Model the fold of this input.
Amino acid sequence: MGMRQFEERLGRLMDGTLTRPFRKNLQPVEIARKLTREMDLNRRVSARGLIGPNKFVVHVSPPDAVRFASFVDALCRELVVAAKEHAQTDGYSFVGTVVVEIYEDLDLKTGECDVEGTFAEIAKKAVLRSDSGETYSMSEVPITVGRQGDNTIVVHDANVSRRHLSIVQVGPRFIAKDLGSTNGTFVNKKKITEVALQDRDIITVGTATLTVELS
Done:
């Protein structure tokens, strides 16, 4: 994972002033390193390959919590990006939305931090984005994709079956199921029968693509 890119992104957010106050204290890049190490130590093998923790709770000392307070939301967002980049580089996937939370811990000294990673099937907002930019909310009400006019998403393509694909929320997961289509459904270029979707998955139906966005 590119820690330098992580620092540069945060530096731009803070108008280039981020690193100067932190030279003798906790550096954001140290949190990112601990977070990715936590991913590596707690990875698991699933039917889809390697999966990593997707919820990270970061504990920092009271002085560092005060220092981070003015940009803690931006820091959490960048740590999420760092986790996703590391997962992509090392071939991980996630069971749910990646979440990073930062809390003050009275037992920690300045410059110290702890990171705990857990597997949490979280999906606060789930949409499909078509290649034309339209979005469709995923929920317990099935989304159907196909050539027939009464589908939720109609694809005018001879390679698409009349009832080609369904997507539905089952508990915390979003399940894509091929409906016996003639030419198949592909997720990230792999032909599927039924699969739990992950953030940034690309579904291909004929010449149409749908991008999964879990946030």
